[in-house]
Design brief:
Layout lengths: L7 H14 L15 H20 L1 H11 L5 H28 L13 H9 L3 H35 L3 H12 L2 H17 L5 H14 L9 H13 L6 H15 L11 H17 L11
Bound molecules: fe (ii) ion (2 copies).
Length: 296
């Protein structure tokens, strides 16, 4: 149980602080100096491309949200429309510009809402389904934002080691400061809905089953090629031999609030399964663009 009850007012205050403290980053404010573009491209070009695509897909994510949450709560709308989308789209624009500076083609974001999402959206007009969809949205968001934070932390560290100070500090450093606040929003919202009595046991059971059945890493979106691309990011960030530690890091919250650490669970098994699948698929087929050089 939470130490203190999370109220909608507290979540609203958090969003309001995020908006005040983290205005969207203008492209013109970042120093995109690159000292050795060839090396950065070789080691992290693919990661830049993946992150740029995922960040630029924020506009599709908003459409998905509108589909999935037809009766959106004001605090959710406030977050995604006034604070989250304006920040994320700048992350995408900045990263996309960097990868073009590195001599790579622009990112190709997927902007169409998938069909299965539309079907779910039609069902979501029923209030018990709406609550399930809302909880799924928060859990997905928490996992996604945590992955973003970790990826940016690793990337900034490697870039610094390579002497790419501007990319590490001015580009990735600025972006990565905005991600933990997004995670906190989803964490608070998921904790609230899972502890305030909104959900009946059958709804929680359904959410657990859906997470187990459909969990995907950030940006995979049910597409095989993106699964391999994600595996490539895991490899470039040197996480291939630490998948369990990584699964723990991104799955800890969900193990606690959705599964109540059942049987000593440190992370839900589907986190590690998804990571292994992505690396295996990458090893099998590689990626579309560029070559991978491990970061280690
Ligand atoms: Fe972002
Ligand atoms: Fe984010």
């Amino acid at each position: 149980m939470p130490r203190e009850q999370i109220t909608t007012q507290k979540i609203h205050d958090h969003v309001s602080r995020l908006g005040d403290q983290h205005p969207p980053i203008p492209l013109s404010s970042v120093d995109r100096t690159v000292h050795n573009p060839r090396l950065v491209r070789e080691r992290f070009g693919h990661t830049f491309d993946y992150l740029a695509r995922v960040e630029l897909e924020v506009d599709r994510n908003v459409l998905e949200l509108l589909t999935l949450l037809p009766e959106v709560r004001e605090v959710d709308r406030y977050f995604y429309e006034d604070v989250w989308q304006p920040q994320e789209i700048q992350h995408g624009i900045i990263l996309d510009q960097v990868q073009q500076d590195l001599g790579m083609p622009a990112a190709e974001p997927l902007l169409e809402v998938p069909f299965n999402m539309k079907v779910l959206g039609a069902l979501a007009h029923m209030s018990p389904v709406q609550d399930i969809a809302r909880c799924m949205y928060y859990l997905t968001g928490a996992s996604t934002e945590r992955q973003a934070t970790l990826a940016y932390n690793d990337l900034a560290r490697y870039l610094k080691e390579m002497g790419e100070h501007e990319l590490a500090v001015s580009v990735i450093g600025q972006i990565k400061r905005q991600e933990p606040g997004h995670f906190a929003f989803y964490q608070m919202s998921a904790t609230q809905i899972l502890t305030d009595g909104t959900l009946k046991p059958w709804q929680i059971w359904t959410i657990r089953s859906l997470r187990d059945y459909s969990y995907q890493l950030v940006g995979v979106d049910g597409k095989k090629e993106y699964l391999g691309d994600m595996g490539g990011v895991v490899v470039q960030l040197g996480l291939e031999d630490e998948l369990e530690t990584y699964a723990k890091d991104i799955g800890r919250l969900e193990a606690r609030i959705l599964w109540a650490n059942k049987n000593g669970m440190e992370f839900p098994p589907y986190f590690l399964r998804a990571l292994k699948e992505s690396v295996d698929y990458y090893r099998e087929v590689g990626i579309d663009r560029g070559q991978i050089t491990t970061a280690a």
